[in-house]
């Protein structure tokens, strides 16, 4: 990622500065098997805590690759799952007030299990299946607070 400050002129003619975090396109994957969702948990340094979320990520070295290919790659890397079917549910702007990053949300079904091949910073990642009822209970109880995961789940529910 890169961080930059842009000097801007507002519509009223006054000067200002925008801080922008530039990150490449990302993919969020909702692995669904019947009524079960597959989640991963990892330490998120900026908030200093572990977070449960759907598998997600960007390509290495800020590469821009096809979002469906990226989604399949992240799913296999983080969970070991391979999807027989991948369906685009929609797009998300992560934090458009401060970041240029956009995400594509995919539903992964017809899943086959295999071993994950996690990156170095994902070595302490945990994974688990939970029912949609359990997922929603954890959201209500504050156990799942990741914004991308919550927004992706909304896209699933609206499908």
TrEMBL record:
One of its GO terms (molecular function) is hydrolase activity. Residues 22-152 form the Nudix hydrolase domain. The keyword Hydrolase applies. InterPro entries: NUDIX_hydrolase_dom (IPR000086). PROSITE patterns: NUDIX. It comes from the Bacteria. Its cofactor is Mg(2+). Pfam families: NUDIX. Keywords: Hydrolase. This is NUDIX hydrolase. It comes from Pseudonocardia oceani.
